[in-house]
Amino acid sequence: MGERKDKAAQTQAALKDAARRQFAEHGFLNTKITDITSAAGRAAGTFYQHFASKEDLLQALLADMHGQAGQAFEGDDGPVHDLTDPAQLREHLAVAWGVMRGNRAVMIALFESALADGPNSGALWNRLTADTSMLREHLEYLSEQGQALPGDPALIAAAMGGMLSMLAYALPPVATGSAGGDAPGYTDTQILDALSSLLLHGLAGPGQ
Amino acid sequence: MGERKDKAAQTQAALKDAARRQFAEHGFLNTKITDITSAAGRAAGTFYQHFASKEDLLQALLADMHGQAGQAFEGDDGPVHDLTDPAQLREHLAVAWGVMRGNRAVMIALFESALADGPNSGALWNRLTADTSMLREHLEYLSEQGQALPGDPALIAAAMGGMLSMLAYALPPVATGSAGGDAPGYTDTQILDALSSLLLHGLAGPGQ
DNA sequence: GTCTATATACAGATAGAC
DNA sequence: GTCTATCTGTATATAGAC
């Protein structure tokens, strides 16, 4: 790899890192190109040597995340999971939650970008289904096995994904001190326990 | 009421109507002040005689919605609902869903506005809790009655509200033809059936 | 490849005439 | 009260030097 190319790769990585930090702090729409270049210690014009636009950069971050998420799901047996099994449901939720929370900045950025496409573009629905495709496959498998589900697998997957992602967006990442309001400090364990239980047996509980 | 004041009230109403239409079509952030005034058949400068800013106008729309939502909840017995009862859970979800879908433009606008405050402002969490306060009260009542819930009432209420609102945002209002993607055409009945069932008994179903 | 400087475009908000 | 015209600020993207 030549020196020039190496230098360029370094700059590109610096821009992506800086973008993740800025998105995490200010959000996608509020982040200006110059915020990214400044945080990366580069000049404004350099940005366009690496990305065609802010949206283009976001797609690059998404690709990086997919690579990482693929690893998190390694060892997954495919759609043969039984989500009506407490341990398997919780494990699946834990992995999804981990990916979402570990990439909160990118998730939120994708979400803001979808919103910016307009309420009727379908972009938000596409995001939701893309992020829950694995969930949907598991549910379809259950359905084929004769398990009675609460509704259409794609709808249930979207509903579960919506619950998960809305919480991931709304809950600040850590204890942000006293910044901006009274957001609570639930632990990941509390959240996963609650969601697992709710999605497994609902409000009425297991008995009947 | 004088003529001048009457004329002003008329203009103000026209601006709010136009804003709702524009927000429904293009979203809150994408809508420019001049989009609103044009759609209302008024001049740009007139806007600021009635509202200090776009955010100020949004608050006015929120107030209008609260008035309407109050009527929808009329006859509600307060927090003594038993959400583990199928009919009562479904009824509660139906009212909430109806308000959200009937005011989709304002709901989405509030959501976009909260997002614009930044990911760590807590604005999104405040929105979520404000929109689910009634749900939380019902759950707290259940908890006091000795009903075992899946988790902290505020967290469960937020989770349920997140599921509901994300679907309300993501699903286009009607059949938008072939605009922008493959968004599905679930009916309100399908959605309410699925969510009621999921939240009442979860994925495992009622038996055990 | 990266930099500085700038062209282009547009949104929010105001001033003053009618 | 409403209008037209404009000021101000700011973001994206490009041009040309190093």
Report on the architecture of this protein.
2 copies of one chain form a homodimer. By secondary structure, chain A is mainly α. The first copy, chain A, has 2 domains: 1-51, Homeodomain-like (Arc Repressor Mutant, subunit A, Orthogonal Bundle); 53-204, Tetracycline Repressor, domain 2 (Orthogonal Bundle), CATH 1.10.357.10. Helix content of chain A is 64%, strand content 0%. Chain A contains 9 helices and no strands. Chain A has helices spanning 3-26, 33-39, 54-72, 86-102, 104-116, 123-131, 133-144, 153-170, 188-201. In chain A, helix 4 (86-102) packs across helix 9 (188-201) and helix 6 (123-131) crosses helix 8. The first copy, chain A, is elongated and about 65 Å long. Chain A starts with a helix and ends in a 7-residue tail after the last helix. At the A-B interface, helix 1, helix 5, helix 6, helix 8 and helix 9 of A face helix 1, helix 6, helix 7, helix 9 and helix 10 of B. Chain A binds a DNA duplex (18 and 18 nucleotides) through helix 1.
